[in-house]
Amino acid sequence: MKATSALTRLLFLVYSVSCSPCGRLESLNITGGVEFSNGSVIHGGLEYVSGAWYDLEEDGALIRLGCPCIGRVCLWKCCGEGEAFSNKTCAATDHAAANPFSPPIFRGKEPLDVAAHSSFFFMHSRLCDERYLVDTSSPTERIFIQQVMWL
């Protein structure tokens, strides 16, 4: 009897635990996206295949969250879309380099004629203090975003 009761509680616990395919910080709100019969959701021009999105109750409402970095190469940008980091803060800008954000792409140290915003998915975040900030105005600090070569 005790073994059956313990097994029942364990099964309930396992059933009650929901797993998401990515963490909340790696998720985007895709509530309102169109769900298709194959389980895919289209939102913002991106397809989230079955298993790359999940539903979550947040503040009493059910929202749908997508994991854009499943099946895509993601890069993190500290500021929001259309913003630039200047004087230790994010601020709206009309500077062409931020709209759309499209840093140069390289093969080794050779620049390529490839649009970063069409090759990578940029996750916009306010977590600048948790990331390494590249000082693009420094002559000694350089970063080379590399073209992805799929086999």
Automatic annotation (TrEMBL):
It is found in: Endomembrane system. It is a multi-pass membrane protein. Residues 1-19 form the signal peptide. Its main location: membrane. This is Methuselah N-terminal domain-containing protein. Keywords: G-protein coupled receptor, Membrane, Receptor, Signal, Transducer, Transmembrane, Transmembrane helix. The keyword Membrane applies. InterPro entries: Methuselah_N_sf (IPR036272). Belongs to the G-protein coupled receptor 2 family. Mth subfamily. It comes from the Eukaryota.
